[in-house]
Amino acid sequence: MTLTNFVLEGNRLALARLLTQVENNTSEGRAALTELFPHTGKAHLIGVTGGSGTGKSSLVNQLALYYRKSEGSRKRVAIVAVDPSSPFTGGAVLGDRVRMRDISGDSGVFIRSMASRGSLGGIAQTTAALAQVFDAAGFEIIIIETVGAGQSEVDIARLAHTTLVVEAPGLGDEIQAIKAGILEIADVLVINKADRPGVENTERALRSNLELAHPTKRVVRHHGRSLSVTGPETDSTLWIPPIHKTVAIEGKGIAELAESITRHAAHLHQSGEWAARDRTRLGSELEAVLQEALLTRFHENIPQEKYEEILEKVLSRDLSSWEAVKSLLNGTSK
Amino acid sequence: MIKTMELIGYSLSINRHSIMTAEFIHGGTMTEKKIRVLVAKPGLDGHDRGAKVVARALRDAGMEVIYTGLRQTPEMIAEAALQEDVDVVGLSILSGAHMALAPRILELLKSNGQTHVKIFMGGIIPDEDMPRLKDMGITSIYGPGASMDDIVKDVREAVKP
Fold first, then answer.
1. Which of A207, A219, A300, B87 has the most CB atoms around it within 10 Å of its CB?
2. Any idea what the Cα angle at residue B118 is, between residues B48 and A18, rounded to 5°?
3. For chain B, how many structural domains are there in total?
4. Are A219 and A228 in contact (CB under 8 A)?
5. ipTM beyond 0.85?
6. Bridge-partner residues for B90, per DSSP?
7. Among A210, A208, A214, A259, which residue's Cα sits nearest to residue A232?
8. Which domain holds residue A241?
9. Are A77 and A43 in contact (CB under 8 A)?
10. Does B25 lie in the same domain as B50?
11. Residue A162 is part of a domain; what is its CATH number?
12. Residue of B nearest to A4 (CA)
Protein backbone atom coordinates (compact mmCIF):
# COMPACT_ATOMS: atom_id res chain seq x y z
CA MET A 1 0.00 0.00 0.00
CA THR A 2 1.46 3.32 -1.02
CA LEU A 3 1.29 6.67 0.70
CA THR A 4 -1.24 7.95 -1.84
CA ASN A 5 -3.59 5.07 -0.99
CA PHE A 6 -3.47 6.08 2.66
CA VAL A 7 -4.23 9.65 1.66
CA LEU A 8 -7.19 8.61 -0.50
CA GLU A 9 -8.49 6.55 2.44
CA GLY A 10 -8.47 9.65 4.62
CA ASN A 11 -5.40 8.99 6.78
CA ARG A 12 -4.46 12.36 8.24
CA LEU A 13 -0.87 11.51 9.13
CA ALA A 14 -0.20 10.25 5.61
CA LEU A 15 -1.80 13.43 4.25
CA ALA A 16 0.40 15.65 6.43
CA ARG A 17 3.51 13.75 5.36
CA LEU A 18 2.61 13.90 1.71
CA LEU A 19 2.00 17.65 1.92
CA THR A 20 5.57 18.07 3.18
CA GLN A 21 6.95 16.03 0.28
CA VAL A 22 4.92 18.06 -2.20
CA GLU A 23 5.86 21.37 -0.57
CA ASN A 24 9.54 20.44 -0.80
CA ASN A 25 9.03 19.34 -4.42
CA THR A 26 10.76 16.00 -3.84
CA SER A 27 10.64 13.18 -6.37
CA GLU A 28 8.28 11.25 -4.03
CA GLY A 29 6.04 14.28 -3.87
CA ARG A 30 5.94 14.62 -7.63
CA ALA A 31 5.25 10.90 -8.08
CA ALA A 32 2.37 11.11 -5.59
CA LEU A 33 0.93 14.14 -7.38
CA THR A 34 0.89 12.14 -10.59
CA GLU A 35 -1.00 9.32 -8.88
CA LEU A 36 -3.45 11.72 -7.25
CA PHE A 37 -4.07 13.85 -10.32
CA PRO A 38 -7.04 11.81 -11.70
CA HIS A 39 -8.81 12.36 -8.36
CA THR A 40 -8.60 16.17 -8.54
CA GLY A 41 -10.91 18.75 -10.04
CA LYS A 42 -13.84 18.44 -7.64
CA ALA A 43 -13.12 21.02 -4.94
CA HIS A 44 -14.13 24.67 -4.85
CA LEU A 45 -10.94 26.71 -4.42
CA ILE A 46 -11.52 29.96 -2.57
CA GLY A 47 -8.70 32.50 -2.41
CA VAL A 48 -8.58 35.07 0.38
CA THR A 49 -6.25 37.99 -0.13
CA GLY A 50 -5.82 41.57 1.08
CA GLY A 51 -3.49 43.77 3.09
CA SER A 52 -1.83 42.60 6.28
CA GLY A 53 -3.98 43.17 9.32
CA THR A 54 -7.27 43.35 7.43
CA GLY A 55 -8.45 40.20 9.21
CA LYS A 56 -7.99 37.51 6.57
CA SER A 57 -7.24 34.72 9.05
CA SER A 58 -10.22 35.57 11.27
CA LEU A 59 -12.42 35.65 8.20
CA VAL A 60 -11.12 32.26 7.02
CA ASN A 61 -11.80 30.89 10.51
CA GLN A 62 -15.39 32.10 10.36
CA LEU A 63 -15.97 30.86 6.81
CA ALA A 64 -14.69 27.40 7.72
CA LEU A 65 -16.93 27.39 10.80
CA TYR A 66 -19.85 28.34 8.61
CA TYR A 67 -19.19 25.53 6.12
CA ARG A 68 -18.91 23.05 8.98
CA LYS A 69 -22.05 24.17 10.76
CA SER A 70 -24.50 25.30 8.12
CA GLU A 71 -27.51 23.04 7.70
CA GLY A 72 -27.26 20.21 5.26
CA SER A 73 -23.74 20.95 4.06
CA ARG A 74 -21.08 20.01 6.65
CA LYS A 75 -18.48 20.17 3.95
CA ARG A 76 -14.91 19.12 4.63
CA VAL A 77 -12.68 22.17 4.63
CA ALA A 78 -8.95 22.43 3.98
CA ILE A 79 -7.09 25.65 4.65
CA VAL A 80 -3.71 26.56 3.18
CA ALA A 81 -2.38 29.65 4.96
CA VAL A 82 0.69 31.33 3.46
CA ASP A 83 2.95 33.70 5.41
CA PRO A 84 6.17 35.34 4.19
CA SER A 85 9.65 33.84 4.46
CA SER A 86 12.55 36.05 5.52
CA PRO A 87 14.53 37.17 2.46
CA PHE A 88 17.69 37.02 4.59
CA THR A 89 17.53 33.79 6.57
CA GLY A 90 14.76 31.89 4.79
CA GLY A 91 13.06 31.43 8.15
CA ALA A 92 9.44 32.27 8.84
CA VAL A 93 6.93 32.69 11.61
CA LEU A 94 3.62 31.24 10.47
CA GLY A 95 0.97 32.73 12.72
CA ASP A 96 -2.33 32.26 10.92
CA ARG A 97 -3.38 29.37 13.18
CA VAL A 98 -3.61 31.78 16.11
CA ARG A 99 -6.87 33.12 14.64
CA MET A 100 -8.22 29.68 13.77
CA ARG A 101 -8.73 28.23 17.25
CA ASP A 102 -12.46 27.62 16.78
CA ILE A 103 -11.89 25.04 14.08
CA SER A 104 -8.66 23.47 15.34
CA GLY A 105 -10.41 20.57 17.09
CA ASP A 106 -12.66 19.64 14.17
CA SER A 107 -11.62 16.50 12.31
CA GLY A 108 -13.43 17.76 9.18
CA VAL A 109 -10.99 20.66 8.93
CA PHE A 110 -7.31 20.46 8.01
CA ILE A 111 -5.17 23.57 8.39
CA ARG A 112 -1.74 23.73 6.82
CA SER A 113 0.58 26.72 7.17
CA MET A 114 3.19 27.34 4.54
CA ALA A 115 6.00 29.84 4.06
CA SER A 116 6.24 31.77 0.79
CA ARG A 117 9.89 30.62 0.33
CA GLY A 118 10.94 33.49 -1.87
CA SER A 119 7.86 33.60 -4.08
CA LEU A 120 6.62 37.15 -4.68
CA GLY A 121 3.09 36.64 -5.97
CA GLY A 122 1.43 36.24 -2.56
CA ILE A 123 1.45 32.45 -2.54
CA ALA A 124 4.29 29.93 -2.58
CA GLN A 125 5.48 28.05 -5.64
CA THR A 126 3.93 24.79 -4.43
CA THR A 127 0.67 26.21 -3.04
CA ALA A 128 -1.25 25.02 -6.09
CA ALA A 129 0.19 21.53 -5.67
CA LEU A 130 -0.86 21.45 -2.01
CA ALA A 131 -4.37 22.43 -3.04
CA GLN A 132 -4.34 19.56 -5.52
CA VAL A 133 -3.47 17.08 -2.77
CA PHE A 134 -6.35 18.34 -0.61
CA ASP A 135 -8.65 18.16 -3.63
CA ALA A 136 -7.73 14.52 -4.23
CA ALA A 137 -8.09 13.75 -0.53
CA GLY A 138 -11.76 14.70 -0.80
CA PHE A 139 -11.92 18.16 0.76
CA GLU A 140 -14.82 19.95 -0.89
CA ILE A 141 -13.83 23.45 0.11
CA ILE A 142 -10.22 24.59 -0.07
CA ILE A 143 -9.51 28.04 1.29
CA ILE A 144 -6.17 29.57 0.36
CA GLU A 145 -5.05 32.53 2.41
CA THR A 146 -2.28 34.59 0.82
CA VAL A 147 0.43 36.55 2.57
CA GLY A 148 -0.59 40.09 3.50
CA ALA A 149 -0.85 41.37 -0.05
CA GLY A 150 -0.36 44.98 -1.01
CA GLN A 151 -1.18 45.91 -4.56
CA SER A 152 0.24 43.51 -7.06
CA GLU A 153 0.30 40.05 -5.50
CA VAL A 154 -2.30 38.58 -7.82
CA ASP A 155 -1.18 34.96 -8.37
CA ILE A 156 -4.09 33.77 -6.26
CA ALA A 157 -6.57 34.75 -8.97
CA ARG A 158 -4.98 32.26 -11.35
CA LEU A 159 -5.28 29.48 -8.76
CA ALA A 160 -8.65 30.06 -7.09
CA HIS A 161 -12.12 29.71 -8.57
CA THR A 162 -13.41 32.48 -6.34
CA THR A 163 -11.14 35.25 -5.09
CA LEU A 164 -12.07 37.34 -2.04
CA VAL A 165 -10.27 40.63 -1.62
CA VAL A 166 -10.42 41.81 1.98
CA GLU A 167 -10.22 45.51 2.82
CA ALA A 168 -10.55 47.32 6.11
CA PRO A 169 -11.70 50.88 6.84
CA GLY A 170 -9.11 53.63 6.93
CA LEU A 171 -6.50 52.11 4.63
CA GLY A 172 -6.66 54.42 1.64
CA ASP A 173 -8.70 56.84 -0.40
CA GLU A 174 -10.43 56.63 -3.75
CA ILE A 175 -7.15 56.83 -5.64
CA GLN A 176 -6.12 53.54 -4.07
CA ALA A 177 -9.39 52.10 -5.31
CA ILE A 178 -8.86 53.04 -8.95
CA LYS A 179 -5.30 51.77 -9.13
CA ALA A 180 -4.68 48.63 -11.13
CA GLY A 181 -3.89 45.39 -9.38
CA ILE A 182 -5.41 43.61 -6.48
CA LEU A 183 -8.92 45.10 -6.63
CA GLU A 184 -9.26 43.96 -10.23
CA ILE A 185 -8.97 40.30 -9.29
CA ALA A 186 -11.82 40.37 -6.76
CA ASP A 187 -14.81 38.14 -7.40
CA VAL A 188 -16.16 39.18 -4.03
CA LEU A 189 -15.10 42.28 -2.10
CA VAL A 190 -15.11 42.17 1.69
CA ILE A 191 -14.87 45.15 4.01
CA ASN A 192 -13.89 43.54 7.26
CA LYS A 193 -13.78 45.33 10.63
CA ALA A 194 -16.97 47.04 9.45
CA ASP A 195 -17.68 48.24 12.99
CA ARG A 196 -14.79 50.69 12.68
CA PRO A 197 -15.16 54.36 11.74
CA GLY A 198 -14.63 55.20 8.08
CA VAL A 199 -16.45 52.15 6.77
CA GLU A 200 -18.80 54.33 4.68
CA ASN A 201 -15.87 55.96 2.90
CA THR A 202 -14.28 52.64 2.11
CA GLU A 203 -17.56 51.28 0.81
CA ARG A 204 -18.20 54.38 -1.32
CA ALA A 205 -14.71 54.23 -2.84
CA LEU A 206 -15.03 50.55 -3.69
CA ARG A 207 -18.54 50.95 -5.04
CA SER A 208 -17.72 53.90 -7.28
CA ASN A 209 -14.74 51.99 -8.59
CA LEU A 210 -16.96 49.02 -9.41
CA GLU A 211 -19.45 51.27 -11.17
CA LEU A 212 -16.70 52.58 -13.41
CA ALA A 213 -15.91 49.01 -14.37
CA HIS A 214 -19.54 47.93 -14.71
CA PRO A 215 -21.73 50.91 -15.63
CA THR A 216 -25.30 49.79 -15.11
CA LYS A 217 -28.58 51.65 -15.16
CA ARG A 218 -28.79 53.81 -12.11
CA VAL A 219 -30.22 57.09 -10.89
CA VAL A 220 -27.86 59.76 -9.69
CA ARG A 221 -28.49 63.16 -8.19
CA HIS A 222 -26.54 65.97 -9.76
CA HIS A 223 -26.78 69.47 -8.26
CA GLY A 224 -30.13 68.65 -6.71
CA ARG A 225 -31.72 67.21 -9.85
CA SER A 226 -32.38 63.57 -10.45
CA LEU A 227 -30.73 62.30 -13.57
CA SER A 228 -31.20 58.87 -14.93
CA VAL A 229 -27.98 57.44 -16.18
CA THR A 230 -28.15 54.45 -18.42
CA GLY A 231 -25.06 52.45 -19.08
CA PRO A 232 -24.51 49.98 -21.86
CA GLU A 233 -26.87 47.00 -21.91
CA THR A 234 -25.85 44.70 -19.06
CA ASP A 235 -24.71 41.26 -20.00
CA SER A 236 -26.47 38.59 -17.98
CA THR A 237 -23.35 36.46 -18.05
CA LEU A 238 -21.41 39.27 -16.41
CA TRP A 239 -20.48 38.85 -12.76
CA ILE A 240 -20.39 42.08 -10.80
CA PRO A 241 -18.41 41.62 -7.59
CA PRO A 242 -20.69 42.10 -4.58
CA ILE A 243 -19.41 44.09 -1.61
CA HIS A 244 -19.87 42.55 1.84
CA LYS A 245 -19.37 44.15 5.20
CA THR A 246 -18.21 41.78 7.92
CA VAL A 247 -16.98 41.82 11.50
CA ALA A 248 -15.05 38.56 11.48
CA ILE A 249 -14.29 38.32 15.19
CA GLU A 250 -18.03 38.51 15.96
CA GLY A 251 -19.07 36.37 13.01
CA LYS A 252 -21.19 39.19 11.54
CA GLY A 253 -21.97 39.11 7.82
CA ILE A 254 -20.42 35.69 7.30
CA ALA A 255 -23.57 33.85 6.19
CA GLU A 256 -24.24 36.50 3.51
CA LEU A 257 -20.62 36.31 2.36
CA ALA A 258 -20.75 32.51 2.11
CA GLU A 259 -23.98 32.87 0.15
CA SER A 260 -22.22 35.12 -2.37
CA ILE A 261 -19.38 32.63 -2.70
CA THR A 262 -21.86 29.86 -3.47
CA ARG A 263 -23.63 32.07 -6.01
CA HIS A 264 -20.29 32.84 -7.65
CA ALA A 265 -19.52 29.12 -8.01
CA ALA A 266 -22.95 28.60 -9.61
CA HIS A 267 -22.30 31.54 -11.93
CA LEU A 268 -18.94 30.06 -12.97
CA HIS A 269 -20.58 26.75 -13.83
CA GLN A 270 -23.45 28.38 -15.73
CA SER A 271 -21.31 30.74 -17.76
CA GLY A 272 -18.70 28.14 -18.63
CA GLU A 273 -16.12 30.23 -16.78
CA TRP A 274 -15.33 27.34 -14.40
CA ALA A 275 -14.01 25.24 -17.27
CA ALA A 276 -12.24 28.26 -18.76
CA ARG A 277 -10.44 29.00 -15.49
CA ASP A 278 -9.50 25.35 -15.13
CA ARG A 279 -8.04 25.46 -18.60
CA THR A 280 -6.03 28.61 -17.89
CA ARG A 281 -4.73 27.22 -14.61
CA LEU A 282 -3.73 23.81 -15.91
CA GLY A 283 -2.32 25.48 -19.03
CA SER A 284 -0.01 27.71 -17.03
CA GLU A 285 0.98 24.75 -14.85
CA LEU A 286 1.85 22.78 -17.95
CA GLU A 287 3.82 25.74 -19.23
CA ALA A 288 5.82 25.99 -16.00
CA VAL A 289 6.64 22.29 -15.93
CA LEU A 290 7.61 22.42 -19.59
CA GLN A 291 9.92 25.36 -18.94
CA GLU A 292 11.63 23.55 -16.10
CA ALA A 293 11.99 20.36 -18.12
CA LEU A 294 13.38 22.17 -21.16
CA LEU A 295 15.85 24.06 -19.02
CA THR A 296 16.99 20.85 -17.34
CA ARG A 297 17.36 19.12 -20.69
CA PHE A 298 19.28 22.07 -22.07
CA HIS A 299 21.72 22.01 -19.15
CA GLU A 300 22.18 18.27 -19.57
CA ASN A 301 23.05 18.66 -23.24
CA ILE A 302 25.44 21.57 -23.11
CA PRO A 303 28.89 20.95 -21.61
CA GLN A 304 29.52 23.01 -18.50
CA GLU A 305 32.82 24.40 -19.91
CA LYS A 306 31.06 25.72 -22.97
CA TYR A 307 28.44 27.41 -20.84
CA GLU A 308 31.18 29.00 -18.72
CA GLU A 309 33.06 30.07 -21.85
CA ILE A 310 30.06 31.92 -23.20
CA LEU A 311 29.29 33.42 -19.80
CA GLU A 312 32.85 34.77 -19.77
CA LYS A 313 32.25 36.43 -23.13
CA VAL A 314 29.14 38.07 -21.73
CA LEU A 315 31.14 39.26 -18.72
CA SER A 316 33.77 40.81 -20.96
CA ARG A 317 31.01 42.48 -22.99
CA ASP A 318 32.00 40.64 -26.17
CA LEU A 319 28.53 39.12 -26.36
CA SER A 320 25.15 40.42 -25.30
CA SER A 321 22.82 38.06 -23.43
CA TRP A 322 20.69 37.74 -26.55
CA GLU A 323 23.64 36.76 -28.74
CA ALA A 324 24.88 34.40 -26.02
CA VAL A 325 21.54 32.58 -25.91
CA LYS A 326 21.54 32.36 -29.69
CA SER A 327 24.91 30.67 -29.80
CA LEU A 328 24.04 28.42 -26.84
CA LEU A 329 20.91 27.25 -28.61
CA ASN A 330 22.78 26.66 -31.89
CA GLY A 331 25.30 24.68 -29.93
CA THR A 332 28.01 26.79 -31.47
CA SER A 333 30.19 29.28 -29.71
CA LYS A 334 31.10 32.45 -31.55
CA MET B 1 -4.02 0.73 12.44
CA ILE B 2 -1.34 1.87 14.87
CA LYS B 3 0.98 -0.56 13.22
CA THR B 4 0.41 0.81 9.72
CA MET B 5 0.77 4.35 11.05
CA GLU B 6 4.11 3.47 12.55
CA LEU B 7 5.10 1.94 9.28
CA ILE B 8 4.35 5.12 7.40
CA GLY B 9 6.16 7.10 10.06
CA TYR B 10 9.14 4.83 9.73
CA SER B 11 9.48 4.75 5.98
CA LEU B 12 8.97 8.49 5.72
CA SER B 13 11.33 9.43 8.48
CA ILE B 14 14.03 7.77 6.43
CA ASN B 15 12.97 9.57 3.28
CA ARG B 16 12.44 13.00 4.71
CA HIS B 17 15.97 13.61 5.89
CA SER B 18 18.20 11.51 3.71
CA ILE B 19 16.80 11.50 0.22
CA MET B 20 16.29 14.86 -1.43
CA THR B 21 17.14 16.92 1.63
CA ALA B 22 18.77 19.14 -0.91
CA GLU B 23 17.83 19.37 -4.50
CA PHE B 24 19.58 20.84 -7.48
CA ILE B 25 17.53 23.35 -9.34
CA HIS B 26 18.62 25.27 -12.43
CA GLY B 27 22.26 24.31 -12.50
CA GLY B 28 23.42 24.51 -8.97
CA THR B 29 21.42 26.54 -6.47
CA MET B 30 20.30 24.40 -3.57
CA THR B 31 17.12 24.42 -1.55
CA GLU B 32 17.44 22.81 1.84
CA LYS B 33 14.70 21.01 3.61
CA LYS B 34 13.38 23.44 6.19
CA ILE B 35 13.15 22.48 9.84
CA ARG B 36 9.53 22.97 10.91
CA VAL B 37 8.83 23.81 14.55
CA LEU B 38 5.53 24.21 16.37
CA VAL B 39 5.75 26.70 19.24
CA ALA B 40 2.80 26.30 21.58
CA LYS B 41 1.67 27.39 25.01
CA PRO B 42 -0.41 24.74 26.72
CA GLY B 43 -2.39 25.49 29.85
CA LEU B 44 -3.72 28.64 31.38
CA ASP B 45 -0.87 31.06 32.03
CA GLY B 46 -0.79 34.11 29.78
CA HIS B 47 2.94 34.81 29.67
CA ASP B 48 3.90 34.35 26.03
CA ARG B 49 6.93 36.64 25.86
CA GLY B 50 9.36 33.73 26.11
CA ALA B 51 7.56 31.71 23.44
CA LYS B 52 7.62 34.68 21.07
CA VAL B 53 11.32 35.38 21.66
CA VAL B 54 12.17 31.74 20.96
CA ALA B 55 9.92 31.71 17.86
CA ARG B 56 11.78 34.76 16.57
CA ALA B 57 15.19 33.24 17.29
CA LEU B 58 14.30 30.04 15.43
CA ARG B 59 12.99 32.12 12.53
CA ASP B 60 16.29 34.01 12.38
CA ALA B 61 18.05 30.66 12.30
CA GLY B 62 16.19 29.88 9.06
CA MET B 63 13.50 27.59 10.46
CA GLU B 64 9.79 27.69 9.73
CA VAL B 65 8.01 28.30 13.00
CA ILE B 66 4.29 27.71 13.39
CA TYR B 67 3.01 29.77 16.28
CA THR B 68 -0.33 28.77 17.76
CA GLY B 69 -0.86 31.30 20.54
CA LEU B 70 -2.06 31.08 24.10
CA ARG B 71 -4.15 28.60 26.06
CA GLN B 72 -3.86 25.51 23.91
CA THR B 73 -5.11 22.14 25.09
CA PRO B 74 -2.85 19.09 24.61
CA GLU B 75 -5.34 17.90 21.98
CA MET B 76 -5.03 21.16 20.01
CA ILE B 77 -1.24 20.98 20.14
CA ALA B 78 -1.08 17.35 18.99
CA GLU B 79 -3.53 18.06 16.17
CA ALA B 80 -1.55 21.11 15.01
CA ALA B 81 1.71 19.11 15.15
CA LEU B 82 0.08 16.45 12.98
CA GLN B 83 -1.42 18.79 10.39
CA GLU B 84 1.76 20.84 10.08
CA ASP B 85 4.01 17.73 9.98
CA VAL B 86 6.57 19.39 12.25
CA ASP B 87 9.94 17.99 13.26
CA VAL B 88 9.96 19.69 16.65
CA VAL B 89 7.38 20.88 19.18
CA GLY B 90 8.42 23.62 21.61
CA LEU B 91 6.26 23.97 24.70
CA SER B 92 6.30 27.02 26.94
CA ILE B 93 4.82 26.44 30.39
CA LEU B 94 5.02 28.86 33.30
CA SER B 95 1.96 27.72 35.22
CA GLY B 96 3.47 24.79 37.09
CA ALA B 97 1.23 22.32 35.30
CA HIS B 98 4.07 20.77 33.29
CA MET B 99 3.92 17.37 35.05
CA ALA B 100 0.30 16.99 33.94
CA LEU B 101 0.55 18.58 30.48
CA ALA B 102 3.78 17.04 29.19
CA PRO B 103 2.82 13.36 29.55
CA ARG B 104 -0.57 14.02 27.95
CA ILE B 105 0.98 15.72 24.92
CA LEU B 106 3.59 12.97 24.54
CA GLU B 107 0.87 10.35 24.69
CA LEU B 108 -1.25 12.09 22.04
CA LEU B 109 1.69 12.55 19.66
CA LYS B 110 2.50 8.88 20.06
CA SER B 111 -1.05 7.72 19.41
CA ASN B 112 -1.10 9.93 16.27
CA GLY B 113 1.96 8.09 15.01
CA GLN B 114 4.31 11.07 15.44
CA THR B 115 6.95 9.28 17.46
CA HIS B 116 9.77 10.97 15.55
CA VAL B 117 8.79 14.46 16.75
CA LYS B 118 11.23 15.94 19.29
CA ILE B 119 9.76 17.89 22.21
CA PHE B 120 11.51 20.88 23.72
CA MET B 121 10.29 22.68 26.81
CA GLY B 122 10.85 26.09 28.33
CA GLY B 123 9.51 28.14 31.21
CA ILE B 124 9.56 27.72 34.97
CA ILE B 125 10.45 24.09 35.58
CA PRO B 126 11.81 23.10 39.03
CA ASP B 127 15.15 21.26 38.95
CA GLU B 128 13.74 18.12 40.57
CA ASP B 129 11.17 17.71 37.78
CA MET B 130 13.72 17.88 34.97
CA PRO B 131 15.04 14.30 35.13
CA ARG B 132 11.50 12.93 35.28
CA LEU B 133 10.45 14.98 32.24
CA LYS B 134 13.49 13.80 30.31
CA ASP B 135 12.68 10.20 31.24
CA MET B 136 9.22 10.71 29.80
CA GLY B 137 10.81 11.71 26.48
CA ILE B 138 11.30 15.49 26.58
CA THR B 139 14.46 16.19 24.57
CA SER B 140 15.63 19.35 26.30
CA ILE B 141 14.44 21.86 28.92
CA TYR B 142 15.34 25.56 29.25
CA GLY B 143 14.81 28.01 32.09
CA PRO B 144 15.07 31.78 32.38
CA GLY B 145 18.25 33.18 30.83
CA ALA B 146 18.78 30.29 28.42
CA SER B 147 20.90 31.22 25.41
CA MET B 148 19.11 31.38 22.06
CA ASP B 149 22.23 30.06 20.34
CA ASP B 150 22.08 26.95 22.53
CA ILE B 151 18.42 26.39 21.73
CA VAL B 152 19.03 26.76 17.98
CA LYS B 153 22.02 24.44 18.14
CA ASP B 154 20.12 21.82 20.16
CA VAL B 155 17.14 21.89 17.78
CA ARG B 156 19.41 21.42 14.77
CA GLU B 157 21.20 18.59 16.53
CA ALA B 158 17.96 16.87 17.54
CA VAL B 159 16.51 16.71 14.01
CA LYS B 160 19.67 15.42 12.38
CA PRO B 161 19.01 12.05 10.75
1. B87
2. 105
3. 2
4. yes
5. no
6. B39, B120
7. A214
8. 40-277
9. no
10. no
11. 3.40.50.300
12. B8
